[in-house]
Amino acid sequence: HSLLYRRRLKKPGRNFALSGSLSYENTDATTDLDTRQFFSQFAQPQILRDTLVQNQFEDVEQLNWSAEAAYTEPLNKGRVLQFKYNHSQTDYYFDKDFFDLINGEQDFNELLSNEYQSDFYFDQAGVTLQQNRQKYQFSFGVNGQRTLLVGDLIAQDTTFRSEYLNALPFARSN
C-alpha cells in the first residue's frame, strides 16, 4: 500500500510532500524429498546406493515500510532548492527445518536446519540545487546515507551488525 500527500504553500513553487509505503509477505512451504542415488566404482564392480528421505518445513515473513518527506523552496530565475529525507526498513524472518525420515520416524536434522532474523534500516537526507532554463537544466547536491543491518542466526546464537555512513555528491546536466 502507498500513500502520497502534497501541499502547495503560499509562495509559488514552494511545496511540501510526504509519501509512504507498506508491504507484508508471509509464506509457508512444505517439501517432501525422496532421493535415491546409485554410484558405481571402476575399481570395484559393486554398486553403492544412497537413499535420502526428508520432510522440510519453511516459514518466511517480510515486512517493508518506507517514508519520505520533501520540501522545495523557489529561489530566483528558475532556481529551486530541495530538501529531502527518506527512511525505509525491512524486517525479515526465515525458518527452515529439515527432518530425516528413518524407519518412518522424523529425526530433526540440526546441521541443515536454519533460523534467521534480520532488520535492515536505510536513511538518506540531502539537499539539491536545480537550475531550469529554456536551453539547459542542471542540478547538483549531496546526500548523506546511513545503512544498518542487524542479523541474528538464532540456532547458532550469533548476532551481527554492519553499519555504513556515506556522503554521496552528485551533479546532472541536460
Jot down its keywords.
mainly beta, 8-stranded antiparallel beta sheet, 174 residues, 81% strand, single chain
Can you walk me through this structure?
Helix content is 0%, strand content 81%. The protein is mostly beta strands. Strands 1, 2, 3, 4, 5, 6, 7 and 8 form an 8-stranded antiparallel beta sheet that branches. Strand 1 (2-8) and strand 2 form a beta hairpin. The radius of gyration is 27 Å and the shape is elongated.
- The DSSP helix count reads 0
Largest sheet: 8 strands, antiparallel
Order of helices and strands: EEEEEEEE
**Number of β-strand runs:** 8
Structural class: mainly beta
Q: How far apart, in Å, are the first and last alpha carbons?
A: 34 Å
| Residue windows where pLDDT falls under 50 for at least 5 positions | none
Mean pLDDT: 90
Helix content: under 10%
Which overall shape is indicated by the principal axes computed on the Cα atoms?
A: elongated
Strand % is over 45%
Provide a short characterization of the protein structure.
The protein is an all-beta fold. It has no helices and eight strands. It is elongated, with a radius of gyration of 27 Å.
Ordered list of secondary-structure elements with their pairings:
Blueprint (H helix, E strand, L loop, with lengths): L1 E7 L6 E26 L6 E28 L4 E24 L2 E4 L5 E19 L4 E17 L4 E16 L1
